[in-house]
Amino acid sequence: MTAHGLGQESLRCLVTGATGYIGGRLVPELLAAGHRVRCLARSPERLRDHPWAGEAEVVRGDVTDGTSVAEAMRGIDVAYYLVHALGTGRDFEETDRRAARIFGERARAAGVRRIIYLGGLTPPGVPERELSPHLRSRAEVGRILLDSGVPATVLRAAVVIGSGSASFEMLRYLTERLPVMVTPSWVHTRIQPVAVRDVLRALVGSARMPADVSRAFDVGGPEVLTYRDMMLRYAAVAGLPRRLILPVPVLTPRLSSHWVGLVTPVPASIARPLAESLRHEVVCREHDIARYVPDPPGHPLGFDEAVRLALRRVRDARVLTRWSSASLPGAPSDPLPTDPDWAGGSLYTDCRERTVDASREALWRVIEGIGGDNGWYSFPLAWAVRGWLDRLAGGVGLRRGRRDAARLRVGDSLDFWRVEEIEPGRLLRLRAEMRLPGLAWLEMFAETDEAGRTRYRQRAVFHPHGLLGQAYWWSVAPFHALVFGGMARNISRTAAAEARTARADA
Question: Where is the NAD(P)-binding domain (predicted)?
């Protein structure tokens, strides 16, 4: 049967936002459903290490670039729009508006059969001007895509519960870390949370909607809860003592976002739109999606079951994507200058090498396990202070942790770093995403020297921006022996100690 016939034929699907939380989970679901997938990504290399990478086509482009979108739309049946410009600056609404128009126009020109978009659930009866900028922009993007001339499915969800989602991480850390909580008044707002599995099921199923259906659908779980209910229910599922929650009306969304940023790994820049979205009731008004994507037995999942499944994935280290999977808006993306004759200005380096009494494999395990709960192997206070300073400056801080406790892949966030390159068994290159007056990288190598001994090699690289960048480098240079020297020494010692333990147990 042809791709444009009826029935359960394989569809050609374009996915934008595949490096993000939902998009990274949608691609394998579409492949499992028998569809062919093309991903549009600004940095295709960040999808290289995903388990499904060899099954999907990846093309370079950006939704604000009409030429690359048009090329990506060629031969596509269904186009998924899963990107937004939140956090890119005060004009993010205009960026979202422009990108949505380009996407709709190019989809129509390419003969795409359907556009599918995941937006936010908006409260009934609330004028759009009173909505948070985040929700207002999501609603406008949905309207633009519905008016594009291409049949569109706009799914509107409130709080998505799944391992690694920003909403789940915010709920999890607030509940686990604070047995007594002074909370904003929005903890009494009624919300209809939905399991990420049900969101993905609706996204995949919407690909086969009849051509005459073009509308928005509310997507939610079976329960309406307040945020307070959600925290208490989370504590019960997680086996925590009952939490005491004390609402304080003076905590505005802005203030509460900083409070969330202090307690959880979710930075204030992301917590604020989440908090602002909770000012108004977000409850589904219909469940019409079930006419076209029928609910299987046991679905939609209840809140407790969604939390239970998410916690199981966290504890089993099987988190497929995280809220931090997407690039931080405004974060540097320049590749590391590798040309020895690079003429881009000053380039400062700090290099360390040590012989290690362990195999390369043992050394690599320590390198790949760096960060998160394992820390950075030197002067923890200095790393903690740098993380707090980054938070105060509006950065991500040091608490994003890791997606997986043992394995890394290109594109993973790692505390305030991003994995830029990984050659298993040899090289880990991290690019800094903390607030800096310049660009910074950290490289760690596991090598074998001419005598057959294992060598650990480490290189920190900094490309300063202007006079402030120069001043920054020289102001921290006196601490490099303590921080970077200690890191090289302790990584080597840890690898040697683990090798000795392994030999003793053999």
Answer: 17-158
